[in-house]
Amino acid sequence: MGPILEMKGITKRFPGVVALKDVNLVVQAGEIHAICGENGAGKSTLMKVLSGVYPHGSYEGEIHYEGKEQRFAEIADSEEVGVIIIHQELALVPLLSIAENIFLGNEQASRGVINAEHTYTKTVELLGKVGLKESPDTLVTNIGVGKQQLVEIAKALSKKVKLLILDEPTASLNETDSAALLDLLLEFKAQGITCILISHKLNEISRVADSITVLRDGATVATMDCRDAHASEDQIIRYMVGRDMADRYPPRTPEIGDVLFEVRDWTVFHEQHADRKMIKGVNLKLRRGEILGIAGLMGAGRTELAMSIFGKSYGRRISGSAFLRGAEIDVGTIGKAVSHGIAYVTEDRKGYGLVLENEIKHNISLSNLPGVSERGVIDEGREFQVASEFKRKMNIRCADVFQHVVNLSGGNQQKVVLSKWLFAGPDILILDEPTRGIDVGAKYEIYSLMAQLAAEGKSIILISSEMPELLGMSDRIYVMNEGAFVAEMNASDASQEKIMRAIVRAGKDQ
Amino acid sequence: MNTIVEAAAGNAEQKGGSWRFMRKHMREYGMLLSLAAIMIFFQYMTDGTLLQPLNVTNLVLQNSYIVIMALGMLLVIVAGHIDLSVGSVAGFVGALAAVLMVEYHWHFVPATLVCLVVGGIIGGAQGYLIAFHKIPSFIVTLGGMLVFKGLALALLAGQSVGPFPPQFQLLSSGFIPDPISGTEGLRATSLLIGAIIALGLFYAGVRERANRNRYGAHTEPFTFFIGKSVVFAAMILYFSYLLSTYKGLPNVLVIMFALMLAFDFITNRTTLGRRIYAMGGNEKAARLSGIKTQWLSFYTFANMGVLAALAGLVFAARLNTATPKAGLGFELDVIAACFIGGASASGGVGKVMGAVIGAFVMGVMNNGMSILGIGIDYQQVIKGLVLIAAVFVDLYNKNK
After folding, report:
1. In the sheet that A277-287 helps form, which strands lie side by side, from edge to edge?
2. d(C-alpha A228, C-alpha A94), whole Å
């Protein structure tokens, strides 16, 4: 039938980063085309270029769709010609009904007055197409995630879709819902709708996809036909992770002691959906002087695990026990967790780590104000000295510690957050994506700091989506998937392929 | 020898530094300058009536309850909340005081204490709902505003109740006793106290600066610092002189000044204050730093309740009667004072002294426009425009 879509030489730059480098993508009409790659490989960015989220002119390269070059200035332009994207985070309004959501922005109205009957009958028809047995009047908040996903698809169908893009559609679905969704995609294919499916789950890809494009570090690595024998799972994994591991990590000789911290049978439920289990009976052991990596894809539950351990700052109905040096401890509030020597450096430093409009020194002292005060009165001299000492030690690049953190670069902000927690004097540091969004130089400084802290006998839990970083820094790695540890390996025998395989296999077993 | 050379180099570096420093810190000093400009304007327009000793005394008395509430409101706003109920709470507490003292003939000391405690309980109850049940403060205190307006009316059965015992009236209409010059002529004691405060603040400023220099923090340029401190001390001295030529320092000014110093200290120097700013700036980050954000919100509202009660007592004592209409619309003046003084509606930003200055900007305008005979209608229009303009200029400076 020929290609419905050709993206040629797409390059997209953000300040300081090249997110996409000369990416080519050819999608044949009527096929299901899978795009896979690690976190940060550029999959979502590519789809945003395609759908007009990044308008024409903000990237280089050409988009040919149905034989014509397209220059989308906004999402509405791409929807106009039948390109519909369903994002990973669903874009539904929870307190509106299914029908209202489906026709949001596309209301069935004449002269601004909504035709309720028309809306209703059309919704019933669309829900029939996606196989969702719910009344159009049901509020979206009252149906599960799987059904919400179907509502999104029905919404796409209401817009005369020709090319449907699904970004990780099954990430938050259970097995039954996932299977139903994949069947639906096959049905659409039979009706002549082309699909682009972004997914980590290789078993899903091999089930429905006709061809696969692998992205890595913002570039196309390979495009394969699925009927080809050469398109084996192992080959795909190799394409996804295959990059050289240069000398990007400081050398260290780990001196690992006894078990310092242990978590047993840790189970956590979702904050809003009280019956959704986010962490499923995790057992974790952390030794003195050890850097323990936790690998996993986005949504695996790593942050949720860390935050629930850190003073139950995430989740509900948390059960399980925590032990420090063999004795059970209470980590029920953040204050208690900190007093037991636990520190959590968040992955979202702007949202959860810093008071952006405050001075550097105020941020550094925040988690240990008693350390710079006497009977509740802050000794500003001491605070200044402490902050200046961290500025020097951590090499925070700023004029002085009176500067507001909002004006610092990402790497320096991260150093401020790290300083804050180091000043609290922890034995156990949980670092959640500590190098996200910071440049290579600052990364190396943070790796060196981790090595130094471990050498001082502190224990570090490193949560990272960058596998080279995990392999380069960790002594031992837990692989996490869907809220459970699915593998444990020593860094010496771990590899990116092994980790990826553990994740993929775990997905398959379910 | 060396030190002299270094000092000289330092001076050369600072040449013209004061002016640059001023421009850089326009936001901090801008409001103070605006207040000065407004005062000079009205002083000129009213042919000198504004700064007559009697009028200055009146200015203090008229604005004391707004200033007292603005101190608490600043904390509430910095914490990221708002309290709309303060006017009604002040009115209710004034009514309660009248009932206790006039109808039940309580002594003024226990009555005052009970009133302050009741204020704390009211603030605490609202704070509890806001902090622990996550009901937006706007809604809780909007409800509180209606509730206590109604309760004040019920308590007074729609009547005005008064007069208060003479000792209680002294809270608002009294002046500090003068053992030096008695009740005639220039009140030397008041002037002396003014001089001591001016000197004390000057000394505190010098010590603070020396302290900062000792640990190597940057400070404002020396000439600027001296200039600022001298002007500041001279202003305090001048105003205490003005007050001394009338009846001396009003009791309520002493209370207000003590509270001002206390809240300035709490917000700038204590862990409690620091935590409130951090919470207002980023609640999640503060909570993840181990700060008990819920209790902090609760405290700020309980504190607000006590201050609203105190303001209610001051107002009742000033009118010498409790009326069902007392406190009406106070919350608007108080909130406006905080925003004029540079507080941010999204929390985390604001200074106690800013709120005090804001309160006096409103107060001087009220007073000046009344002397000029501008009707209450246009007074409101002008005040509203000044509020918007002040915040506009502040945001403009911030984004520049």
Report:
1. A277-287, A259-269, A316-324, A327-329
2. 43
| CA dihedral of residues A159, A161, A166, A172 (deg, nearest 10) | 50
Interatomic CA distance for residues A115 and A113, integer angstroms: 6
What predicted TM-score, i.e. pTM, was given to this entire model? 0.78
- Verify whether the Cβ–Cβ distance A357 to B349 is below 8 Å: yes
Return the SS3 of B337.
helix
CB distance from B290 to chain A under 8 Å?
A: yes
Contact A335 B269 (CB under 8 A): no
Contact between residue A69 and residue A247 where contact means Cβ atoms under 8 Å apart:
no
- Measure in Å the smallest separation between the Cα of A373 and chain B Cα atoms: 7
How far is it, in rounded angstroms, from Cα A480 to Cα A262? Answer: 17
What stretches of A191-327 show up as alpha helix (H) in DSSP?
A: 202-208, 233-241, 302-309
Instruction: Give the tens place of pLDDT for each residue, B264-296.
Output: 999 988 999 999 999 999 999 999 988 999 999
Which residue in the block uniquely carries the two structure tokens 């010498």? B320
A92: Cβ contacts below 8 Å, ≥ 6 apart: A101, A140, A148, A151, A152
pLDDT tens string, chain B, 400 residues long: the values are 343 333 333 443 444 566 776 666 666 677 888 888 999 999 999 998 888 989 999 999 999 999 999 999 999 999 999 999 999 999 999 999 999 999 999 999 999 999 999 999 999 999 999 999 999 999 999 999 999 999 999 999 989 998 999 999 998 888 888 877 777 778 888 889 999 999 998 898 888 888 878 777 767 788 888 888 888 889 889 989 988 888 888 999 999 999 999 999 999 889 999 999 999 999 999 999 889 999 999 999 999 999 999 999 999 999 999 999 898 889 999 999 999 998 988 889 899 999 999 999 999 999 999 999 998 899 989 989 988 988 888 788 776 6
Show residues of chain A in contact with B347, CB under 8 Å. none
Q: How far apart are CA A442 and CA A396, in angstroms?
A: 10
Sheet containing A3-14: order of strands? A17-28, A3-14, A60-65, A68-70
CA distance B101 to B32: 40
Taking alpha carbons only, the member of A351, A365, A357, A353 closest to residue B344 is A357
Residues 6+ apart with CB under 8 A from A17: none
Strands A68-70 and A109-110: unpaired
- Which residues of A are less than 8 Å from B348 in CB distance? 355, 357-358
| Alpha helical stretches, state H, A230-279 | 233-241
Phi-psi domain of A290 (left: phi exceeds 0; alpha: psi -120 through 50; beta: other): beta
Tell me how far apart the alpha carbons of residues B12 and A405 are, in angstroms, rounded to a whole number. 31
| Residue contacts between A and B (CB atoms, under 8 Å) | 89
Q: Mark yes or no for CB contact A369/B274 under 8 Å.
A: yes
Instruction: Return the H-helix or E-strand segment holding A277.
Output: strand A277-287
Cβ-based contacts of B287 with chain A (< 8 Å): 313, 334
Q: What residues of A are in contact with residue B215 (Cβ under 8 Å)? A: 380-381, 384-385
- Mean pLDDT per 10-residue interval, chain A, length 510 residues: 87 78 91 83 86 89 90 88 84 88 85 86 90 88 84 88 88 76 90 88 84 88 80 76 63 88 92 83 93 87 92 87 92 92 90 90 92 90 91 86 84 91 93 80 85 93 87 92 90 86 71
Determine the distance in angstroms separating the CA of A305 from the nearest CA of chain B, rounded to an integer: 15
Q: Report the alpha-carbon distance of residue A344 to residue A361 in Å, rounded.
A: 19
Please tell me the distance from the alpha carbon of residue B64 to that of residue B311, in angstroms, as a whole number.
8
Q: Please report the residues numbered 113 through 132 in chain B whose beta carbons come closer than 8 angstroms to any beta carbon of chain A.
A: none
* Chain A residues lying within 8 Å of B264, measured CB to CB: none
User: Nearest CA to CA, how far is A432 from chain B (Å)?
Assistant: 13
